[in-house]
Amino acid sequence: MIRNGLYLAETTFLDGVDAYNRHVMVLRDGTMRGGDGYYYTVGSYTCSGGKWKGEMISREHSPIDGMYPWARKEISIGFTGTYSDDSAEFDATALAGKRSFRFQSIYRLLSAD
Questions:
Q1: Beta carbons of 30 and 46 less than 8 angstroms apart
Q2: Residue ranges with strand state E in 14-98
Q3: What φ, ψ does residue 62 adopt, rounded to 5°?
C-alpha cells in the first residue's frame, strides 16, 4: 500500500508544453487532496504490488498567471504508475476543455501519518 501522508508533488508536462508545477498532496486510504497557489485537486486511487492508478479533478481557485491553455478550465486527469515506501510516480493524461495534455509526476513523502 502507498503510505498515508503529505507528499511533495513535482509535475513536468510533455509534448512541448512549457510548464512545470510543484504542489502538495495528501494521500490517505485511496483519496487524494492537495493543491498550490492556483489550483486545488481531489481524486482517488487504488494500489497493489507496487503499482497504482487513479483519477483526479483540478480546479482553479485563483486566476493563473500567463496564458496556459488550461487556465479557467476544470481539468480531468487519469494516471497509472508505480510506488515504493517513500515515493510514487505516474504518467498521466489531462483533459482541459477539448485539449489533452500528457505529464509525469513524482511524489516524495514529506510526512507519514
A1: yes
A2: 20-28, 31-35, 39-48, 51-60, 75-83, 87-96
A3: -140, 145
Q: What contacts 20, CB < 8 A, 6 or more positions away?
A: 10, 11, 12, 13
Mean pLDDT by 10 residues, the chain (113 residues): 97 85 96 94 97 96 80 93 97 93 96 95
Q: CB of 9 within 8 A of CB of 106?
A: yes
pTM of the model: 0.91
Q: Which residues does 2 contact at the CB level (< 8 Å), separation at least 6?
A: 27, 45, 47, 52, 83, 88
What is the DSSP-derived secondary structure letter of residue 38? S
Task: State how far the alpha carbon of 94 is from the alpha carbons of 13, 41, 45, 61, 87, in Å.
Answer: 10, 12, 16, 18, 22
Question: How many other C-beta atoms can be found within 10 angstroms of the C-beta atom of residue 60?
Answer: 15
